[in-house]
Inverse folding.
């Protein structure tokens, strides 16, 4: 049981300053946690405690206000994501860190295969090869073949989320951030998605996830971090 | 990924220029016209980097200076101050130190530009294919068949109807004119492409197609692009990094999703909140 | 001027002394009609033009006693370089006898006393021509002066002279090439019949004046000096001897000249001298039928004389 830490946040804080109203809205406060290779750390807490903000700060969609986010890249070097250059963050997003929310955001008018293959296209992998890999992955997650060449915008919630996850993992990321991936799904779809999550864990990806359902947490989490407003 | 363009302190002033120009204009002053000498400070101290194959967005409303910036980099206008360097393989070009022949060479062989108004780029007296041929004819190998074939390939790639290759641009719709512009801009396979409000004014469905085309081309050709626009949707769709300009200054820069979801500057917050 | 010691006498002062002592012309003008300073400026312009083959050198084109558009540019060059020992031939569309050629020849003879006149190409040292180059290849030490209406080949694609100068300076002839491309797509051939743009010495592209395509190859690696004068447009340019002159054409579409073939594919012959290699004029004969005859009258005469000698 190797405890390979891949992510460690130190007193991470996020607050928003709204110029128009001249108000500061505090969000995540002094969060320190760890994520390990092949293990899932679950984030829980009441709403408003900054769970989503935390994930977004790691992915750099939000700029952290204070604190550090130490991440170990595949090559072994440590980098503070809070201070990393935009260029470095983009590179990490391209190959090592993936983010999945409860909604599938994809380029409109793209077929499912192309949506899933996009991270490979971006890396410069030859298109036919990339699409082959995408198709392999889609069959692994049991997405019916008749859906492959059409845009996922018309799919059911469950199907969309499976596509969402497939796209996030096609590159076998080192770190996967999940923001309530099953929030709008029915129980059957939730089960399917969780199966995928277990497989991802088994392949060595470190996961930091927000689940709204305690049952899900108990099934998948190796560590649980609870955020409170006075954390 | 290597750097392809480095812009430092680029400044453009239209007018006589006085010592108070810089301090009395900008986002805080809410103007880009100097109250003392009436010069227009179109851009002031703009700096940014661009890497090979990436799409950078320049967001701003009218008067932000975004178009002036691109005009200077494409040698349509001379800067008042500042520098820009273009890198390729093992060569560095100091853009504003080049003489006009060198600048034209770079412009014709290494840069591409697509304007909002096709009249600025296309010759309306010449057929669509001829417009593309013009860019190919700047080089020395002049083979009619090869040039014609290449024009056809380029137009086909922009999903332009090949049967209309010999027609004059005035017979085309706005979307088709833009396609010809894009094909023409890519004729010499430039590593850097400037796109200045290319979809503004087009019908929505046409806009979508052109944007899809731009994305596809970027993926296939790995062209670095600077996309100038006031449309947040275009920024979100195309760009990975963005700089936000107001009255000639850069007020914020960062990853596009961060700019759109966690804007720091008051102006950016205002812009994002104003999106329909 | 008489203060200069004899050894420093310039050619110009020599000339002036000549006119005062030898026969002055009827109207009291000095030799060559133009004053010496005007000639000097034109000669300097010519030297520059020869030094930069194909480059249009601007000059202050003087008022001449013939109107603009009738060869004042060519005439100014001729008058600037002609000497009393020169033999002059003047042709217009290949003929020594057309009105303009006759007038220019007479005028030059009257203002340049002592020069010899000829209709024979081979005897001339200086030939002024409008719109044709003689059939017989010219030799070293012969000078051909061409009359030019529009010196700039780019004038068909760009109206602004400032922009044209920049285009010439940058070797940017793309828009000229585009015109050729557009001809190809519209007509499947390049439709320029005369004034065919020609690249000189791998560098500047010139308008070789309204000579037909047939004559353009004569500019290439020729033994003689070609001088081009545009009086109205005030430009002079040159193609020096042994200089490359390539008509602009696509590498896969060869440059074609007029072939003068009839419906049966046979090359027409001159009705007068029988030549099957010269440039032919077409006109209507007395009974309304089409007649083809050599444009170069001296060439036609010499061919005719040759034929008559051989048939005797």
């Amino acid at each position: 049981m190797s405890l390979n830490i891949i992510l460690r946040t130190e007193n991470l804080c996020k607050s928003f300053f709204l110029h128009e109203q001249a108000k500061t809205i505090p969000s995540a406060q002094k969060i320190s946690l760890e994520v390990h290779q092949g293990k899932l750390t679950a984030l829980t807490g009441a709403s408003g405690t900054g769970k989503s903000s935390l994930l977004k700060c790691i992915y750099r969609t939000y700029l952290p206000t204070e604190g550090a986010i130490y991440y170990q890249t595949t090559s072994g070097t440590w980098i503070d994501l809070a201070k990393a250059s935009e260029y470095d963050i983009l590179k990490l997003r391209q190959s090592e860190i993936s983010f999945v929310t409860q909604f599938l955001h994809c380029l409109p008018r793209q077929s499912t295969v192309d949506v899933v293959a996009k991270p490979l296209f971006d890396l410069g992998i030859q298109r036919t090869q990339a699409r082959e890999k995408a198709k392999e992955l889609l069959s692994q997650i049991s997405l019916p073949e008749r859906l492959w060449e059409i845009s996922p915008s018309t799919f059911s919630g469950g199907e969309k989320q499976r596509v969402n996850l497939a796209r996030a993992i096609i590159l076998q990321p080192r770190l996967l951030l999940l923001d309530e991936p099953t929030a709008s799904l029915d129980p059957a779809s939730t089960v399917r998605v969780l199966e995928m999550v277990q497989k991802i864990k088994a392949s060595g990806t470190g996961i930091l996830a927000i689940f709204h359902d305690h049952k899900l947490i108990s099934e998948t989490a190796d560590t649980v971090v609870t955020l409170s407003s006075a954390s | 990924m290597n750097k392809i363009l480095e812009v430092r302190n680029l400044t453009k002033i239209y007018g006589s220029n006085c010592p108070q120009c810089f301090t009395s204009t900008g986002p805080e002053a809410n103007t880009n016209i100097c109250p003392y000498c009436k010069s227009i400070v179109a851009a002031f101290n703009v700096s940014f980097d661009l890497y090979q194959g990436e799409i950078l967005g320049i967001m701003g409303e009218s008067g932000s200076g975004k178009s002036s910036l691109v005009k200077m980099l494409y040698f349509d206008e001379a800067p008042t101050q500042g520098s820009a360097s273009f890198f390729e393989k093992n060569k560095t070009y100091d853009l504003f130190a080049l003489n006009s022949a060198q600048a034209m060479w770079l412009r014709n062989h290494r840069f591409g530009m697509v304007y909002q108004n096709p009249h600025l780029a296309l010759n309306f007296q010449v057929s669509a294919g001829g417009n593309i041929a013009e860019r190919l004819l700047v080089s020395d190998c002049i083979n009619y068949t090869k040039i014609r074939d290449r024009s056809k390939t380029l137009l086909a790639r922009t999903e332009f109807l090949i049967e209309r290759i010999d027609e004059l641009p005035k017979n085309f719709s706005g979307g088709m004119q833009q396609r010809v512009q894009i094909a023409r801009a890519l004729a010499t396979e430039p590593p850097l492409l400037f796109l200045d409000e290319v979809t503004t004014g087009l019908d929505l469905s046409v806009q979508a197609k052109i944007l899809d085309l731009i994305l596809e081309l970027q993926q296939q050709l790995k062209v670095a692009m600077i996309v100038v626009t006031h449309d947040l949707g275009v920024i979100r769709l195309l760009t990975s990094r963005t700089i936000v300009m107001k009255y000639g200054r850069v007020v914020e820069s960062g990853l596009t999703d961060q700019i759109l979801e966690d804007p720091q500057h008051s102006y950016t917050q205002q812009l994002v909140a104003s999106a329909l | 001027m008489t203060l200069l010691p004899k050894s420093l006498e310039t050619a110009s002062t020599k000339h002036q002394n000549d006119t005062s002592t030898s026969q002055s012309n009827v109207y009291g003008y000095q030799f060559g009609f133009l004053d010496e300073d005007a000639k000097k400026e034109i000669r300097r312009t010519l030297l520059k033009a020869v030094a930069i083959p194909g480059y249009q050198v601007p000059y202050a084109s003087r008022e001449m006693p013939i109107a603009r558009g009738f060869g004042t540019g060519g005439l100014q060059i001729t008058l600037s370089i002609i000497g009393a020992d020169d033999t002059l031939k003047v042709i217009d569309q290949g003929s020594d006898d057309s009105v303009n050629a006759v007038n220019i020849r007479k005028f030059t003879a009257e203002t340049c006393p002592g020069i010899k006149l000829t209709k024979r190409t081979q005897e001339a040292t200086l030939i002024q021509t409008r719109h044709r180059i003689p059939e017989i290849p010219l030799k070293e030490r012969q000078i051909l002066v061409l009359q030019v209406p529009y010196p700039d080949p780019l004038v068909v694609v760009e109206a602004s002279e400032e922009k044209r100068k920049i285009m010439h300076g940058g070797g940017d002839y793309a828009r000229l090439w585009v015109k050729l491309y557009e001809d190809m797509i519209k007509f499947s051939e390049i439709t320029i019949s005369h004034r065919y743009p020609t690249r000189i010495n791998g560098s500047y592209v010139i308008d070789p004046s309204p000579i037909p395509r047939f004559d353009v190859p004569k500019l290439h690696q020729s033994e003689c000096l070609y001088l081009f004068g545009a009086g109205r447009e005030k430009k002079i340019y040159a193609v020096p001897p042994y200089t490359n002159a390539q008509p602009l054409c696509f590498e896969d579409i060869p440059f074609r000249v007029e072939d003068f073939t009839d419906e049966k594919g046979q090359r027409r012959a001159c009705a007068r001298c029988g030549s099957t290699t010269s440039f032919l004029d077409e006109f209507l004969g007395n009974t309304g039928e089409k007649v083809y005859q050599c444009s170069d009258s001296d060439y036609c005469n010499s061919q005719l004389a040759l034929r008559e000698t051989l048939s005797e």
